[in-house]
């Protein structure tokens, strides 16, 4: 069976930046494959387009320039937020808000997003809300392990989740990139 809309796909992959010989940043193995409903918007659109038609046992190598992945770094997504937003019981939360930490936040419109703390001053916290892979070219190499028709329940669960690459992340699980793709949460979008 070939990968087409509403098929359940299981695959392995190594995700590297800067080409086939680049740094390995994520992996889905045969023991913990990436499993998703194809065509449900869980993967990067270009990634999905390039695996369409593959069958069980097929290997793949996919280069995605940053424009087809998470785009260029957007300087407008790097902002200074007032330090008082990070107060807990009248005190600045130094345990969580420190340079290098990724902090879950919510926009005024209720959108969940993660911000990387870049700098802390007396009055502001500089945060970067770009996707961690913005500006990076991605290289996937992997193998299709299984392709089957998705059940009605699997399709319904996927549509109800509201997750995916366009929701600000790679699925709704709040896990690290090392496990995200392996738990079926939906990388292949590269966390």
TrEMBL record:
GO biological process, one term: protein refolding
Top-level EC class as recorded in UniProt: isomerase
GO MF term set: peptidyl-prolyl cis-trans isomerase activity
E.C. no: 5.2.1.8
Location in or out of the cell: Cytoplasm
Catalytic activity line of the entry: [protein]-peptidylproline (omega=180) = [protein]-peptidylproline (omega=0)
InterPro entries cross-referenced by the UniProt entry: PPIase_dom_sf, PPIase_FKBP_dom, SlpA/SlyD-like_ins_sf
Major site of localization recorded for this protein: cytoplasm
Keyword terms, alphabetized: Chaperone, Cytoplasm, Isomerase, Rotamase
Stated role: Also involved in hydrogenase metallocenter assembly, probably by participating in the nickel insertion step. This function in hydrogenase biosynthesis requires chaperone activity and the presence of the metal-binding domain, but not PPIase activity.
Listed PANTHER family: FKBP-TYPE PEPTIDYL-PROLYL CIS-TRANS ISOMERASE SLYD
Name under which the protein is recorded: Peptidyl-prolyl cis-trans isomerase
Organism of provenance: Sunxiuqinia elliptica
Species classification: Bacteria, Pseudomonadati, Bacteroidota, Bacteroidia, Marinilabiliales
